Amino acid sequence: MQLYKREQISQAVAIDQDALAAVEAGFAALGRGEVVQPPILSMAIEEANGEVDVKTAHIRGNERFAIKVSPGFFDNPKLGLPSLNGLMMVFSARTGLVDAVLFDEGYLTMVRTALAGAIAAKHLSRENSRRVAVLGAGEQAVKQVEALRLVRDITAIDVWARRSEAAEEYATRMRAAGLEVTVHDSVREACRAADIIVTTTPSQTPILEAADLPEGVHVTAMGSDSPDKRELAESVLTRADAFVCDTRPQSESNGELKALAGREVPFKVHELGAVIARGERLRLSDATITVCDLTGTGVQDTAIAGFALTRLSAEDSAR
Questions:
Q1: Percentage of the chain with pLDDT > 70?
Q2: 143: domain range?
Q3: Exposure of 267 by Cβ count < 10 A (0-12 exposed, 13-18 middle, 19+ buried)?
Q4: Is 137 in the same domain as 180?
Q5: How many domains are there within the chain?
Q6: How far is residue 220's CA from residue 113's CA, in Å, rounded to a whole number?
Q7: How far is Cα 50 from Cα 171, in angstroms, rounded to an integer?
Q8: 172 and 96 share one domain
Q9: Same domain, 235 and 259
Q10: Helix (H, G, I), strand (E, B) or coil at 268
Q11: Same domain, 281 and 306
């Protein structure tokens, strides 16, 4: 058994085309029905303002599977500690023995989350998309754009965040990456000229309305990943010409389909893996509005963990 720490892992795995292909292949396998993926195990630790999620999946035919443990303790910054942490345990799918422990401290989750947004845009946004509106200014606001640039020639960002200081800091960072960035005081202004909108907040109430959507836009909503979070108003879901999620059960429990809880969903729900596996073209014209709700899946974790271990093992062999 091998133990790898974050520094080693981050040197071996980046947001690049190879990692994107690995995660996309995991989604496609899910869409073909080749994945065993149990529901998320989630536990609240209320007295410490914490939660722990456990995700896993087995892709049939793969030599390994991963189990990820992802704690979030949201008072940690007051103690000088990070809010998010975690590790991935990688097992042999033939013997069940532990092949490796990836003590990545949440790094691989960050990578696969960013790549999922890029994969959604690859299959759902206009190919000539250049301008992205980013709602939020945290880590994923940066990484989602980095990943998007693997699949679209993004040149400009419009950013909105609840804290104007955070938006300005974000703008400075993204300008240093060679992008044109405009900071806005309202969501509507930020989205007015967008080809792609990415929501990256922990909001518990909707921040994006149907009236904010320009013609032909693609929306990737990745902030709502628990029962108490929501970023999209119900009007966004019903306005979309195509609604896609990573898995419908998770979207209904943790994602944006919670808005319709207890009611019949008045539109077809597509799953991203099936869209990829079947080569479905949901964008029928440049005016089509698409929405993708990403809650984070175990198959992404198994895909990125397997990819990481292959890279790390190759580096070990080369030494």
A1: 100
A2: 116-297
A3: middle
A4: yes
A5: 2
A6: 11
A7: 30
A8: no
A9: yes
A10: coil
A11: no
Higher pLDDT, 316 or 104: 104
For the stretch 257-266, contacts whose Cβ atoms lie closer than 8 Å and that sit 24 or more positions apart, written own/partner, are 257/293, 258/224, 258/227, 258/230, 259/206, 259/230, 259/232, 259/233, 259/234, 260/234, 266/238
As a whole number of angstroms, the distance between CA 300 and CA 112 comes to 6
CA–CA separation, 236 and 256 (whole Å): 10
Same domain, 202 and 81: no
Per-residue model confidence as pLDDT tens digits over 145-163: 999 999 999 999 999 999 9
- Non-local (6+) Cβ contacts of 40 within 8 A are 53, 54, 55, 250, 254, 298
Place of tokens 């804290």: 163
At 31, the amino acid letter reads: G
Residue 140: both structure tokens together: 């994923």
Write down the pLDDT at residue 319. Answer: 67
CATH code assigned at 17: 3.30.1780.10
Q: Which residue has the tokens 């998309």?
A: 129
Tokens of 64: 């390994």
pLDDT at residue 316 is higher than 90: no
Identity (one letter) of the amino acid at 179?
A: L
